[in-house]
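Researcher: Sequence recovery benchmark, item below. Answer with residues only.
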């Protein structure tokens, strides 16, 4: 049994006193004081937690006064100024002008560089000679089969506006119908089919179209010449011109074009005979393509005709129009 002397009692009391005033105990006391002030709303708690102030304007005059203050404060912010680099040349503002579409003849094609990225590309809108209709194509890309299909649309223009405005404000709400489709229902892999407007006929009753068919590993396969008749709503594939070219070179020169890669290059409507369409023909028989002549065919497909084996100097009419961005210097 331990016996406590007077000295030991004094030492034990001192140890207990030191423990009571330690930092941990002081923290407990502060915590208890904060809790007490929270529940009993002491002056120290109210000083640390003031009531929220209501800054909402009480009258309309006060609202307008605060709004004007905010506007004045915002207007005082200076705009950034950068030193002008003398090496930078200021480009002029572009101007949108109305130009003839098929210029140079047969040159225009749909730019498909971003087709795989955007999955959809629209061609240039080509306006009829009477400026009341516009035709354009939309090319769609299907990544699952690596194919591309095209749909061609005919749109009515708002004739109550001037020519420039009716083209710029052309909208499908004015009337839009599908007139041609190619490759939209095909399940063949790596096949791309595009439809591009060649030009309107002089009387605006027909549209010459080229259909390009390509295979991804080999490139372009062949080009078909089509004519859409607005009066009948039917499309004619002028395959007779391809057959005539093959027949001529087989019978007269012993050249079997089916053994080579060859194609036609549609130009447009013959300026001297508005019912006929001019085409060039080429064969890939060596390093340099062989010119197979200038040919023409009427839009019915009844008669194909060799125009020249050497000359390409034939006049093509330019009937359709389109908008083009130009820069004036």
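Model:
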């Amino acid at each position: 049994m331990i016996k406590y002397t007077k000295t030991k009692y004094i030492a034990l009391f001192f140890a207990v006193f030191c423990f009571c005033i330690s930092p941990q105990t002081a923290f407990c006391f502060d915590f208890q004081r904060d809790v007490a002030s929270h529940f009993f709303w002491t002056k120290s708690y109210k000083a640390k937690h003031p009531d929220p102030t209501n800054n909402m304007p009480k009258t309309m005059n006060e609202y307008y006064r605060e709004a004007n203050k905010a506007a004045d404060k915002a207007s005082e912010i200076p705009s950034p100024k950068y030193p002008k680099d003398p090496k930078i040349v200021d480009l002029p503002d572009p101007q949108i002008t109305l130009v003839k579409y098929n210029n140079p003849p047969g040159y225009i094609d749909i730019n498909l560089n971003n087709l795989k990225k955007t999955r959809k590309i629209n061609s240039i809108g080509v306006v009829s000679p009477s400026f009341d209709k516009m035709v354009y194509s939309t090319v769609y890309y299907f990544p699952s089969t690596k194919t591309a299909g095209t749909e061609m649309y005919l749109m009515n223009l708002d004739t109550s506006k001037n020519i420039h405005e009716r083209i710029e404000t052309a909208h499908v709400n004015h009337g839009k119908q599908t007139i041609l489709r190619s490759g939209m229902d095909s399940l063949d892999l790596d096949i791309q089919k595009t439809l591009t407007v060649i030009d309107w006929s002089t009387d605006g009753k027909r549209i010459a179209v080229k259909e390009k068919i390509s295979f991804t590993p080999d490139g372009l396969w062949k080009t078909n010449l089509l004519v859409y008749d607005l009066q009948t709503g039917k499309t004619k594939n002028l395959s007779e011109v391809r057959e005539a070219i093959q027949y001529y070179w087989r019978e007269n020169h012993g050249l079997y074009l089916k053994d080579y890669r060859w194609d036609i290059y549609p130009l447009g409507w013959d300026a001297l005979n508005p019912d006929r369409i001019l085409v060039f023909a080429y064969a890939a028989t060596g390093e340099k393509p062989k010119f197979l002549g200038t040919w023409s065919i009427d839009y019915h497909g009844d008669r194909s005709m060799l125009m020249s084996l050497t000359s390409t100097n034939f006049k093509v009419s330019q009937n359709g129009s389109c908008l083009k961005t130009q820069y004036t210097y």
